[in-house]
Amino acid sequence: xxxxxxxxxxxxxxxxxxxxxxxxxxxxxxxxxxxxxxxxxxxxxxxxxxxxxxxxxxxxxxxxxxxxxxxxxxxxxxxxxxxxxxxxxxxxxxxxxxxxxxxxxxxxxxxxxxxxxxxxxxxxxxxxxxxxxxxxxxxxxxxxxx
Length: 146
What we know:
Order of helices and strands: HHHHHH
Oligomer: single chain
Largest sheet: none
Strand content: under 5%
Structural class: mainly alpha
Radius of gyration: 19 Å
Shape: elongated
Helix content: over 70%
């Protein structure tokens, strides 16, 4: 029976490793898309308050969207694209929050910290501004040093 327990543990470790790789890829892709959308919309997500306002739908960029919805005015193609882009950004920010919550619950804080650090290291290697994606959670997930 001990052999079965060992095989089961190896299988579980392999599954956790694969899951960590999946999360790392997903987080990298999410962060890249979020950074692109924020650039297109001219929204600086490096400010945690701004990022939170987009997530909550209270950012001034939503004002135009809400105003047109209330007035029922005719929207130009550019307005509609802006609205869709803004809503996509908001949705991806929420999705990333959900992904991080699920990852911590599933793989634990330590593995999640490792994933976040690897994603951040890769972004820096690519020459991307660290906070362009508004991923302030990484600062909270860094283990205390000292």
